[in-house]
Write a structure and sequence with these properties.
The protein has a domain at about 5-40. The protein contains three helices and two strands; from the N terminus they run H-H-H-E-E. The chain has helices spanning about 5-15, 25-40, 75-80, and strands at about 85, 85-90. It has a two-stranded antiparallel sheet. Helix 1 crosses helix 2.
C-alpha cells in the first residue's frame, strides 16, 4: 500500500504532529515502508504458534487479586503538610 502526501498530512493532523510541508513526502515514504513491512508480516504462517511475552520461556509474576489499603497509611501521611485522623487535611474550597 502506498501513502500519498495528502494522506500523510491527514495522519500527522490526526496524530497532532506538526510536520513541515517540505517534510511530508519523506513522511509519506516512511509510512509506506511501515505498511509494506506489515504486509510482509501478514504473509507469515503462524498457525500453531502460541503468543509469547518474551523470547525466553517464562511465566509472568502474579499476585492475588485482592483489595488492600497497602498497609502504609503512616508512611503516606508522613509526607502530607497537614494530616488529621488518618486523612489528608486540605483547605475548604467550596463555601
Amino acid at each position: 500500500m502506498s501513502i500519498d502526501v495528502e494522506t500523510a498530512r491527514r495522519v500527522a493532523k490526526l496524530a497532532r504532529i506538526q510536520v513541515d510541508e517540505h517534510d511530508l513526502p519523506a513522511l509519506a515514504g516512511e509510512l509506506s515502508n511501515i505498511l509494506g513491512f506489515m504486509e510482509q508480516l501478514n504473509e507469515v504462517d503462524v498457525t500453531g504458534v502460541e503468543p509469547m511475552t518474551s523470547v525466553t520461556p517464562m511465566r509472568l509474576k502474579r499476585r492475588a487479586d485482592v483489595v488492600t489499603d497497602g498497609n502504609i497509611q503512616e508512611l503516606v501521611l508522613k509526607n502530607a503538610p497537614d494530616a488529621r485522623e488518618g486523612f489528608f487535611a486540605v483547605p475548604k474550597v467550596v463555601e
